[in-house]
Amino acid sequence: MIQVLQTHEQLVELHGAIKEFYQKMPYTKKALDAGVWADKWLGLIQAGTGTVIAALKDDKIIGGIGLITFPAFEDDALNTQEAFWYVQEGNRGAGISLYKAAEEYVRAIGSDRFTMIFLETSMPTKVENFYKKMGFKKAETTYIKEL
Question: What's the domain count of the chain?
Answer without folding.
Answer: 1
